[in-house]
UniProtKB/TrEMBL annotation:
Pfam families: LptC. The keyword Transcription regulation does not apply. The keyword Transit peptide does not apply. NCBIfam families: LptC_YrbK. It comes from Pontibacter anaerobius. Coiled coil: none annotated. Signal peptide: none annotated. This is LPS export ABC transporter periplasmic protein LptC. Keywords: Cell inner membrane, Cell membrane, Membrane, Transmembrane, Transmembrane helix.
């Protein structure tokens, strides 16, 4: 009886040992997750200086990735305020990216910048916003509508509030007045 018990025990251990066999895989060959590590909804980010609101960024969805980059897959909307706290201009795009290491934002798809004080509007398909330098720029086609004229061209550099801008290859309708 004792020999039968030992034989049965050996059979059970042998079956258990074969059942626990695991394939050892090289971790470098494993497929890695590359999606967002964080996803936030209805995001509002405020940038201020000396307790004065300067910039307000809003997005329906913000995703952050392992290397720190952010993506706004459903677009974003930015408000720029002057030193007195008045809304000065706005920026929106259908899709956006953020590189926090460079303080650089990228907007694409129906990008519109409005300067509310001058009543001017910039339209383009792609725009970079350098938050640190307070500048916007693009190499794509741009259209600026003012109360008096429509300017078009390819390539633009401007202040983030669109108060001053330079179009590289200018075309469009111009009004000149002699004084």
């Amino acid at each position: 009886m004792r020999d039968a018990f030992i034989a049965l025990l050996l059979i059970v251990f042998a079956i258990a040992g074969f059942g626990c066999k695991r394939d050892i895989k090289n971790p470098d060959e494993e497929e890695r997750y590359t999606g967002p590590t964080i996803e936030n909804h209805d995001v509002t980010t405020l940038y201020s200086d000396s307790a004065k609101l300067l910039i307000k960024l809003q997005a329906p969805v913000q995703q952050e990735f392992e290397e720190g980059d952010g993506v706004f897959p459903k677009g974003f909307y930015v408000e720029f305020y002057d030193e007195q706290g008045n809304l000065e201009s706005t920026l929106r795009g259908n899709h956006g990216k953020q590189d926090p290491r460079k303080n650089l934002y990228y907007a694409r798809g129906n990008v519109v910048v409005n300067n509310l004080k001058k009543k001017e509007k910039l339209e383009t398909e792609e725009l970079y916003w350098d938050r640190k330098k307070a500048k916007i720029y693009t190499e794509k086609f741009v259209k600026i509508t003012t109360p008096e004229e429509i300017l078009t061209g390819k390539g633009l550099t401007a202040n983030q509030d669109l108060s001053r801008y330079s179009i590289k290859k200018v075309t469009g309708k111009f009004n000149f007045s002699e004084e």
